[in-house]
UniProtKB/TrEMBL annotation:
It comes from the Bacteria. This is DUF4134 domain-containing protein. InterPro entries: DUF4134. Keywords: Membrane, Transmembrane, Transmembrane helix. The chain crosses the membrane at residues 21-40, 60-81.
Amino acid sequence: MAIAQPGINEFYRASGEMHRWYFSLSDLVLVIGAIAGILGGLRIYTNWQSGKHHHIDAQVMGWFFSCLFLILVGAFLRALYGIS
């Protein structure tokens, strides 16, 4: 006699909720990252224009690697949760 396993429907429901929330949160994180990236770029631009060149290289590298980190973390989380 085949008896349905308890919790299967709840598992599918929780999986669907997780996918829905993940997409909402990933969109929010990308928007926050875009705003932070624009503000970081503007800060570097104003420092360059005002003649504060002594730490521009460090600021540009920090800005670049923070953008790269944001992209890689997003890809890692998508792979971790199996979301394509």
